[in-house]
Design goal:
Chain B: InterPro entries: ABC_BtuC-like (IPR037294), ABC_transptr_permease_BtuC (IPR000522). Chain B: Pfam families: FecCD (PF01032). Chain B: This is Iron complex transport system permease protein. The complex is a heterodimer. Chain A has 20 helices and 24 strands. Chain A is α/β, with parallel strands linked by helices. Among the domains of chain A are: about 70 residues, no CATH class; about 220 residues, no CATH class. In chain A, a hairpin with a 2-residue loop joins strand 4 and strand 5. In chain A, helix 12 crosses helix 15. The C terminus of chain A is likely disordered. By secondary structure, chain B is mainly alpha-helical. Chain B has a single domain, classed as ABC transporter involved in vitamin B12 uptake, BtuC (Orthogonal Bundle). In chain B, about 75% of the residues lie in helices and about 0% in strands. Chain B is built from 15 helices and two strands. Chain B has a two-stranded antiparallel ribbon with strand order 1-2. In chain B, helix 3 runs parallel beside helix 9 and helix 13 crosses helix 14. Chain B is globular and about 65 Å long. The chains are: A alpha/beta, B mainly alpha. Chains A and B meet through helix 2, strand 6 and helix 3 of A and helix 10 and helix 11 of B.
């Protein structure tokens, strides 16, 4: 039993709006009529409702030809909720619902006990019992919509037609109304046809969809079928919005070419914000930017720089402020692979969540630096503090260079060296780790690597050390340059050659590769100090003196 | 609570109307004691036998006319306001009174032939001319109602017809001698006093017929409160309902105009008052309440018009006394709830 349309044509005397319509709305099902504005949804519904004559074809309701029914018979079989705004004046909600008995009452319109029972049932069915005694004029739009629906139910119809019932409602009322219609369809075995603009909601709750496409062709089927067939997209996609099949919603279509990868639970939400601010969510591979959700915020990475931001608002303004990046974010998988290969060069490096502080935070921490120097000195068994300092620094620089150059050679990428974690083992050897694979890539990584290695690691490292131990700056830069040379022997690359030509490194070594500064190992008590020596008079600083 | 209130209002209106009727019969240029008035009404001999004549030939027809006219105008006004969903609609919105006016002015100022003959017929001629004029407009409106899609169009046409008729009346008046023009103007001010017992029979019959048809319109008018589209989907034959409503309203308005002249104000105000009193727009109670309230109001106006200095025109009383009352009621209600769309 159902509403059946065969070759139906609707429209006006001078203009056929829709023709050749074939469709069925089954009892017990919620059927949603969808279509772009102006395609003829309302005309179709008005024709079904008997408010305008059909231009051809047949409409059968439970086997009866609708066109052949009298006004009253029709009203007993189907009820309609229209978009017309209703202000009937001084009427209680119950009186208004009582008007729904119109096709069942005699010429006086008096309600019998039976009629009153049905009115009560209808009010209860739409959960409006608390509104029954109230004046219709005082009801909110949502409440009035409920009461009008109850009035339709009081007609005891087999078919309920609703024309955009949610047009005036706020979001919660829309959801509530949709839920109500679903319930009524299944519990009262009604055929319900609803036209709506609430596309996303409709697609989620409809048992069946009548989709009028832009050419006025009616497609019918379960919403999922129409979505899979691409009909939803074909009908509703615009330059700005497109239907996302998996999400079942419409998403902003991004015209932006720059991509951003979002990692973490908030990904979907952030991607929406990014789309709005001119980014395209990255489908995979390298991306122009990357956002990683952390325990207390978001790590935003773009153009070789990392920003640690507390909330979405900050992320949005960050995303808006970015210019087109030169350096891009490498595919995390590529980074992982490159690091795995590169770890062959540096056994003291791991990827994974290992305990430890970030290396950056060590440089500025005098106690940590002093502790590292002390333990290195103990391991070496030297009393000269500068020897220990130099050794620790040389080892650290060598690890950094080997990681950086190793991944450049194996994957043309630089891992997130600014996120390296530092740990000092019991044997005073330094262990570095990266919590998760991530890194940068660009056709030419020289500038990025120069900045990261020299400006963000070697220089603060040098300054941090010299704040604790009076050691020659030239020696430390010499160490750094020598460590780069060592790494280059294992991982030869043009990039390394360009780096070593950087003045601060180039000046620290003589052409034959010997450190220019501070002949710490050749100095005798009487030979004085070299020009670079930070010491003032006292030539030897013992471990004992410095820690005292 | 609401049911009790409605019963109370209807009861009070019934009693009020009965009282007002008695008072209207008591008051007049000849002083008749209340007790004797009641005696006459009950068919007993009063102290002065002349009083029987006064009451039976003058006062009863006058009071009866007032009650009938008030009831008719109230009901017709209510029907029009609901049908057109317009709080300013009244029984004469469709030009029925304009048609009657034109008929009467043709009779009174006519320069010969058929109309002159009618004028010679005196009062009967005036009633007949008003009835013919109203009937012509009524027929036109009913024919149009079958064709015109929305009632608003009908309303606009009615206003246009009214304006055209008023222009023709003005034209006729400029051509006629001042004495006859004066007669027409006093007809236009309305009166319950002109009717004879014979008139009353005809007037009563037509009004009763109109009210009976109006009773049939209560259920359709309720459906129409939700607008024509909703009414149609609830099984109402809107075209038939429209014609039934227009037929009864025009019949009532036409009859009143024919016998009492175009009595303004009652038709527009009484429905609002009744709606306020009852607190509902449900025509099944509103219609009888409007009927009673209309009769009551018209009787009070008839009483008020009997001043020591002479009889005032009814339109003066209805508008002067009634307008402030309605304004107060409406302001207290803060809206014209009940008919506005």
């Amino acid at each position: 039993m159902s509403l059946l349309l065969r070759d139906l044509a609707v429209g006006y005397r001078k203009r056929t709006v829709l023709s050749g319509l074939d469709a069925e709305a089954k009892r017990g099902e919620l059927t949603v009529l969808l279509g772009p504005n102006g395609v003829g949804k309302s005309t179709l519904l008005r024709t079904l409702a008997g408010l305008q004559p059909s231009l051809g074809g047949v409409m059968h309701l439970d086997g009866a030809d609708l066109d052949g029914l009298s006004h009253t018979d029709r009203a007993r079989r189907m009820a309609v909720v229209l978009t017309d705004r209703v202000s009937p004046g001084l009427l209680t909600a119950r009186e208004l619902v009582g008007f729904g008995r119109h096709p069942h009452t005699g010429f006086t319109g008096a309600l019998t006990e039976h009629d009153r029972g049905i009115v009560d049932w209808a009010i209860d069915a739409v959960a409006a019992t608390h509104l029954a005694g109230r004046d219709v004029g005082e009801l909110s739009d949502g409440e009035r919509q409920r009461v009008l629906t109850a009035r339709a139910l009081a007609q005891e119809p087999g078919l309920l037609l609703l024309d955009e019932p949610s047009a005036f409602l706020d979001a919660p009322s829309r959801v509530a109304l949709t839920g109500l219609l679903r319930k009524l369809a299944s519990e009262r075995d009604l055929a319900i046809v609803v036209s709506t603009h609430e596309l996303e909601l409709a697609l989620r709750v409809a048992d069946a969809v009548w989709l009028l496409d832009r050419d006025g062709v009616l497609h019918t089927g379960p919403p999922e079928q129409l979505a899979l067939d691409g009909l939803i997209s074909a009908t509703f996609d615009t330059d700005e919005l497109k239907f996302d099949l998996t999400a079942g919603t419409f998403v902003l279509r991004s015209a932006a070419t720059r991509t951003c990868r979002v990692l973490g639970a908030d990904g979907v939400v952030l991607e929406r914000a990014l789309t709005r601010t001119g980014w395209t969510p990255s489908a995979g591979g390298a991306a122009d930017a990357e956002i990683r959700q952390t325990a207390n915020g978001y790590l935003c990475l773009a153009d070789g720089k990392t920003a640690d931001l507390p909330d979405v608002a900050a992320v949005v303004s960050w995303a808006r402020a970015q210019s087109d990046p030169v350096v891009r974010r490498a595919d995390p998988a590529d980074v992982a692979a490159a690091l795995a290969q590169a770890s062959a060069f540096s056994p003291y490096f791991v990827v994974g969540d290992t305990p430890g502080r970030t290396l950056h935070s060590i440089y500025a921490d005098r106690d940590a630096v002093a502790e590292a120097v002390r333990r290195t000195g103990l391991r070496l068994g030297v009393t000269e503090q500068r020897v220990a300092a130099s050794t620790w620094q040389f080892g650290l620089a060598a690890r950094l260079w080997s990681i950086a150059l190793g991944t450049v050679v194996t994957g043309n990428l630089v891992p997130d060296l600014d996120r390296l974690c530092y740990q000092l083992d019991d044997d005073a050897s330094v262990r570095l780790s990266l919590p998760e694979p991530g890194g940068w890539t660009a056709p030419d990584l020289t500038a990025l690597l120069t900045r990261i290695m020299i400006d963000e690691h070697l220089r603060p490292m040098c300054e941090g050390l010299r704040a604790v131990v009076p050691v020659a700056e030239g020696l430390l830069w010499g160490n750094a340059a020598a460590a780069l040379r060592g790494a280059l022997r294992l991982a030869p690359t043009d990039l390394g050659d360009r780096l070593i030509a950087t003045p601060v490194l180039a000046n620290a070594l003589s052409p034959n590769g010997i450190r220019r500064s501070c002949c710490l190992f050749y100095r005798t008590p009487t030979s004085g100090t070299c020009g670079d020596c930070p010491l003032d008079g006292a030539a030897v600083v013992t471990m004992k003196e410095s820690t005292a | 609570m609401t049911t009790a209130r409605r019963a109370l209002v209807l009861g009070a209106l019934t009693i009020g109307t009965a009282v007002a009727l008695t008072v209207a019969i008591t008051v007049g240029s000849v002083a008749v004691p209340l007790a004797d008035t009641v005696r006459v009404l009950l068919g007993m001999e009063p102290q002065d036998p002349r009083w029987t004549v006064v009451i039976e030939t003058v006062r009863l027809p006058r009071a009866g006319t007032a009650a009938l006219a008030g009831a008719a105008l109230g009901v017709a006004g209510l029907q029009m306001q609901t049908l057109f969903r317009n709080p300013l609609a009244d029984p004469f919105s469709l030009g029925v009174s304009s048609g009657a006016s034109l008929g009467v002015s043709l009779t009174m100022v006519g320069t010969g032939g058929f109309t002159a003959g009618l004028a010679a017929g005196g009062r009967l001629g005036v009633v007949a001319a008003a009835a013919v004029g109203a009937a012509v407009v009524l027929t036109g409106i009913l024919l149009l109602a079958r064709v015109v899609r929305t009632p608003v169009t009908l309303l606009v046409i009615g206003v246009m017809v009214g304006a055209a008729a008023a222009a023709l009346v003005s034209l006729l008046l400029t051509w006629t001698d001042p004495q006859r023009a004066q007669q027409f103007i006093s007809w236009g001010l309305g009166s319950f006093s002109g009717t004879t017992s014979a008139d009353l029979t005809v007037f009563g019959g037509v009004t009763a017929a109109g009210l009976l048809v109006a009773a049939l319109s209560a259920k359709p008018l309720n459906a129409l409160l939700l607008g024509e589209n909703y009414a149609r989907t609830m099984g109402l034959n809107v075209r038939r309902a429209r014609i039934i409503t227009l037929l009864s309203a025009s019949l009532l308005a036409g009859a009143v105009t024919a016998f009492c002249g175009p009595i303004g104000f009652l038709g527009i105000a009484v429905p609002h008052v009744a709606r306020r009193l009852l607190g509902t727009s449900d025509h099944r109670v509103l219609l009888p309440a409007t009927l009673l309230a209309g009769a009551l109001t018209a009787l009070l106006c008839a009483v008020a018009s009997q001043t020591p200095g002479g009889v005032l025109p009814i339109n003066v009383i209805t508008s002067l006394a009634g307008a402030p009352v309605v304004i107060v009621i409406l302001i207290r209600a803060r809206s014209l709830q009940g008919v506005t769309s």
